[in-house]
Amino acid sequence: MKRILRGAAIPILILLLWEAGSRAGLLPMDTVSRPSHVAAALVGALADGSILRATWQTVEAALLGFAIAAAAGVLVGVILGLSPLLERTVGPSIEALRPVPAVALTPLTLLLFGFGLRMEAAVVAFACVWPVLLVTVAAVRGIEPRLLEVAQALRLSFPSRLRKIILPAAIGRVVVGLRVALGISLIVAVTVEIVMNPRGLGYGMIVASQSLKPELMYAQLLWLGFLGWGLNALLTRALGRWHGAFGPGMQP
Amino acid sequence: MKRLLRASGATLFAGALLLLWQALADRQFISPVFFPPPSRTLGELWHQVAQGQIWAPLAATGYRMFCGWALASLAGVAVGAAIGFSRAAREVLEPLLEFMRPLPASAVVPVAILFLGFSNAMTVAVIAFGAVWPVLLGSLHGFASIEPQLADVAAALRLSRAQAFVKIAVPNALPDILAGARVGLAISLILAVVTEMQASQTGLGQNILLAQRSFRGPELYAGVVTLGIVGFAINHAIMLLERRLLRWRGAPA
């Protein structure tokens, strides 16, 4: 409790100074707004459902892109992890593609898909696939070789080898990559909306800013902060439980 | 010989990818305006290099990225060191930092526009805000994780606080700081592109956007390729710097 109080001290102090400065007329209303107005704007946006609708649009694109990236990253990662020869052949091409900033692809995906969910999800998928892919390759390569020999001795088919040996052995580390990717997905989705896609929270902020409603813009920013923070906390806890369930042996 | 064979395998694969792209584009399933072949994309890139059109936007983007990154690195190291060195500061500031860290840096673009307008200062501020977190957290962790034995050594040698800081704390934190700076540089490039697109500042990001708006496919793809090369180059440059600055550590632990 004492720790929470100490941590809340500075934000509360800032808010009080902000409110007081604004009421005293020291701060320009059209840029810095006022905490009470921001709170009112947030409540209003929650009440009329507009911010929840925008949130869903953003989250939907982030999750769709993340799902595509997770499926592709794990699949290709397992294949490359199992075959060092293939990995050496494909690796340099991957290294050449990876540093392309995902947002640079927004104009390109706009040409290919037009505005909407698909172009946003495509950019998110491009950004999210790399952490999943690289972690999966490393995880599969780190599997105890004897396990793979056992699979060979049992003459398991590839699908059952994948299901019974490879995925269970690698998943502890793959989850870490997935967590990183999920964090990236939300950030990229908002970025695409801010840059060009007319939907979701990012676009909402731009509209609020350009129609001179700073209080609404700050409300959305605050909401976005809570969203990111909540997602992060949720993932940390889920991952902790995961490791707890599998014991210390599964930790990366 | 074996290395040569390996390299040729990788080159063959990259070549095959390019050929596939060329073949797909030549079939024109998708209009070449949206999906130009690599021959025209690379031709456009070569044209820009030969005509010298590429340097001005490249320099503008690079300059902005570097300013924001340098600002972020300085602030991140300083704040991280202060927080990492003092327990009290850590307890007071950590929750606030934890809240701000996952905030998408691009989300502060509208706020920055409101305060600074469509200016260079706005782009640099946004880049610095986004790139500061990895450096700050790296620096915080580096300064907070000094081994107790090293602290004992410092006490036994009767080092002053300043000496202990320079001789023990800084070398201890340097690997974490550099790792953070590398991530920060990648973020800086992304944010430079984002802010250029959003705030119509000249640069590679705006070039891509303009190419898209006027349906100049090859130029758009050439811009994306350029950004990929820039990202690759800065990542390798800072990795080289890392290796040189951390040479005293010997083999990486």
Put the structure in a nutshell:
Chain A has 252 residues and is an all-alpha fold. Helices cover 83% and strands 0% of the residues of chain A.
Describe the overall structure.
Chain A has 252 residues and is mainly α. Chain A has 11 helices and no strands. In chain A, helix 4 crosses helix 9 (158-195), helix 4 (50-82) crosses helix 10 (200-210) and helix 9 runs parallel beside helix 10. The radius of gyration of chain A is 23 Å and the shape is elongated. Chain B is an all-alpha fold. Chain B has helices spanning 2-27, 38-51, 55-85, 87-100, 109-116, 120-144, 148-156, 161-199, 204-213, 217-245. The longest helix of chain B has 39 residues, at 161-199. The radius of gyration of chain B is 23 Å and the shape is globular. Classes of the chains: A mainly alpha (252), B mainly alpha (253).
Structural class of chain B, by secondary structure, is mainly alpha
Shape of chain B: globular
Strand content of chain A: under 5%
Largest sheet of chain A: none
pLDDT average of chain B, as an integer? Answer: 84
Instruction: Enumerate the spans of chain A where pLDDT stays under 50 for 5 or more consecutive residues.
Output: 244-252
Spatial separation of the terminal alpha carbons of chain B: 31 Å
Distance, first to last CA of chain A = 33 Å
Q: What distinguishing features does this structure have?
A:
heterodimer; A: 252 residues; mainly alpha; B: 253 residues; 81% helix
